[in-house]
Design a protein that fits this description.
By secondary structure, the protein is of the alpha+beta class. The chain is built from two helices and eleven strands; from the N terminus they run E-E-E-H-E-E-E-E-E-E-E-E-H. Strands 1, 2, 3, 4, 5, 6, 7, 8, 9, 10 and 11 form an eleven-stranded mixed sheet that branches.
Length: about 150
């Protein structure tokens, strides 16, 4: 059953001039253990998400993906979000906890509690954002091992 319950730094996305289907975003640099999980996650990503087709990511797409325009962006192996605290309000989608930022009108969601942090930027035009998080949450569960209970 698919369900959603509402309980770092923002990715600067930019369409490259003259190439409307290309998205530029900073490439994450995960550690060895996270990189292995991220490779498995990236291999399973869909060709379309939220009805949007996958687009080219630059400079390095190994741990990044994007769909549509405005781009829905995913980066795997990002740093632990600075705003993550033991009392952070998390959004849980298919048993994956996401830290929404900013809290009042989130556009950045970071999956926490797994061996690698997975960050998604979902522009406000895609509503509700949980629709985009559902499929990615399932892939995280399948490919990125959970941390021990209570660890974020």
């Amino acid at each position: 059953m698919r369900r959603a319950a509402t309980g770092g730094a923002l990715v600067g996305l930019m369409l490259l001039a003259g190439c409307s289907s290309d998205v530029e975003m900073p490439a994450p640099a995960p550690g060895d253990q996270a990189a292995e999980s991220c490779r498995a996650l990236m291999a399973g990503l869909p060709d379309s998400l939220y009805g949007q087709e996958r687009v080219t990511v630059r400079p390095d797409p190994e741990f990044a993906a994007a769909w549509g325009s405005p781009a829905i962006a995913l980066r795997c192996g990002v740093q632990r979000p600075e705003g993550l605290r033991p009392d952070s309000q998390l959004t849980v989608v298919n048993d994956v906890a996401w830290l929404p930022q900013p809290t009042d009108r989130p556009t950045l969601y970071t999956a926490v509690g797994h061996q690698a942090y997975v960050e998604m930027t979902i522009p406000p035009s895609y509503s509700p954002p949980a629709d985009a998080l559902i499929e990615i949450s399932d892939l995280i569960t399948e490919n990125v091992p959970a941390l021990p209970a209570g660890e974020l």
